[in-house]
Amino acid sequence: MQASFFAQTIYFPAAARVDAVVFAQIPVDHQNFHALVLDTANAKGACSCPFFPKPCWHLQAMALLAQNHPEHFQTTALLPEWASDLLAGKASGTAKSARTAQEKAEAAEKRRFDRLERAEAGFEELDTWLNDLMRRGLAVAVSEDPDFLQNIAARMADASMSGLSRILRLLAAVPPQSPEWPQAALDTLGLCALSALAFRQRAHLPDALLADLQQLIGITAKKETVMQEGEQLRDLWWVAAVQSETLEDRLEQRRTWLLGARSGRYAMLLDFAFGGGGFPPPLRVQEYYAGTLVFYPSAFPLRALPHQEFQAHVPAEALSVHAFPDWDAMLDAAANAWGKLPWLHHFPARVAALRLQFVSETAIYAVDVNGKALPLSMEPEIFWRCMAASEGRPQPFFGVWDGNVFQLFWENT
Questions:
Q1: CATH number of the domain at 221-313, out of 2.40.30, 1.10.3470, 2.40.50, 2.60.220?
Q2: Distance between alpha carbon 79 and the CA centroid of its chain, in Å?
Q3: Could you give the C-alpha distances from 37 to 14, 20, 22, 87, 395, in angstroms and in order?
Q4: What are the pLDDT digits (tens) for 51-100?
Q5: Which of 47, 61, 314, 368 could form a disulfide with 7 if both were Cys (CB 3.0 to 4.6 A apart)?
Q6: Tell me: the pLDDT tens digits for 267-323?
Q7: Of 343, 337, 344, 378, which is closest to residue 361 (Cα–Cα)?
Q8: How much is the pLDDT for 242?
């Protein structure tokens, strides 16, 4: 029924055929389209759209149209390269465009800045606020106006900069009397200043870093665009950890950390739950899933989307999951990542043979094979459970490094 309705209403521009193979392109917007190809003799086809299950409605509609209205398809001599690639399973995402190279370049240049330019007024206001804050001093600002952070957060929200607005609101929720406040204030205000500097230098930034800047201020790439244009990587993905946290009232966030068993690449699946709606079922920690991930554009790609439903996989033989040999190797890799993306929030890392060490309830550490220790972020109760289970012996651990502490997840829980 749905495919029949689509066959009557969907627009197939430049639909054509070569012998028994029909093909067409469906415009999504002024820049993108879905590409379809169908071998009617062998009932074999493909569509570049990101929708599942396959065959999608687009392909079913074209099949009905080819069967009932063959006159709709203009006969041509040669099958386009994009259609043959798609039919052979070589292409995925958006097919090759028929536009000229000049049109593509102009469209790409327009996309480079059009969404980011909307934030210009917001960054001008943020710059003014930061300069005024530095002249007054943090202590004076807090004493004279307890709501000074809430006010600038609201103005960032009005400027459609929801990401920076949320960061400022989270800082406003930390009491100024708290011992954590000075470091939190320094980190947040430094991040705001860095984003303003990056915006002023936007004409000189590479496309990947521009995408990161958009993500930071709250301009998120559409999932459909990511599925069409993002980097794809198929692997056996080991689920290292799943962590959930409440960002604000009625807003929860869940990160699923994955590590490619063959590629050694880290990835993060990000889910949100609004108003207590709950998350979709999580992947099972410490298990392998076979599938393809599509990475968001980034100077240091981490966030990804599953290209298709992941399938739980039991390896036929034991797989050796990548791990840094010691803290120095991990810190070198983290420094390299921050060099590519200065406002990277979390650096995921699995480190081999760490031994836990307790000094006090506010000072717990993990010591590597060379005796170097880094501070941990763990509740004392969880620390002692891990210590008891490991019996004090070195164990591999996965965690997230934020530049100050290592948030650790024990692999045997």
A1: 2.40.50
A2: 36
A3: 12, 11, 6, 6, 52
A4: 777 788 888 888 888 888 888 888 887 888 888 888 887 754 444 444 45
A5: 61
A6: 999 998 887 778 888 888 988 999 999 999 999 999 999 987 778 877 655 567 899
A7: 378
A8: 93
